[in-house]
Write a structure and sequence with these properties.
By secondary structure, this protein is of the alpha/beta class. Helices cover about 25% and strands about 30% of the residues. Helix 1 packs across helix 2. It binds adenosine-5'-diphosphate and magnesium ion (MG).
Length: about 160
């Protein structure tokens, strides 16, 4: 586990871009954080770096959006999901059986027990000023270890 501090939306976007550029075949990210933390902003920056042309917004009502860029991206928002059984219904397990895709999952909080074996876990928390965010990064499984290690050693974005 390590943390990256950002002091502006632009710096959080830089992190999204950096992660996008580290993707080899596929990647799954669970994005934890309160309302307004920056989950969607992060997702937008990652999609932009993957050359997605569409407008990326939180898929709160339809639970998942699909974007096409250099990779196909599945963007989930589990906020409105009622129970774990519903994950199966919305095809969550098929979408997260990735080969050449990227999956971003907002509001995984109540469903960590049902998340895939391998993913990066990003938790965005507010710092002590309006534009400050503390982003804690964890590795689940070993599949994305390279990306995790690269991020860990790339230094702080706000430097
Ligand atoms: P969420 O999807 O987590 O609810 P959003 O990404 O929609 O949050 O909104 C985050 C808001 O916080 C945006 O208006 C963004 O401009 C603002 N913001 C301010 N500072 C930061 C920062 N350091 N990182 C990310 N967002 C920031
Ligand atoms: Mg959001």
């Amino acid at each position: 586990m390590f943390t990256i501090t950002t002091n502006s939306p632009e710096q959080t976007s830089l992190l999204g871009e950096k992660i996008a550029n580290l993707i080899q075949d596929n990647l799954i990210i669970c994005l934890e954080g309160d309302l307004g933390a920056g989950k969607t902003l992060f997702t937008q920056s990652l999609c932009k770096a993957l050359k997605v042309k569409e407008i990326v917004t939180s898929p709160t009502f339809n639970l998942m959006n699909v974007y096409e860029g250099k990779k196909r991206i599945y963007h989930f928002d589990l906020y409105r999901l009622e129970q774990p059984e519903d994950l199966e219904e919305i095809g969550f397990y098929e979408y997260t059986d990735v080969e050449d895709e990227v999956v971003l999952i907002e509001w995984p909080d109540r469903f960590f027990a049902y998340m895939p074996e391998d993913y990066l876990h990003l938790k965005i928390e507010r710092g002590n000023s309006e534009q400050k965010r503390i982003i804690t990064i964890n590795l689940e499984g070993q599949k994305y270890k390279n990306i995790y290690e690269e991020l860990k050693h790339c230094g702080n974005i706000s430097d």
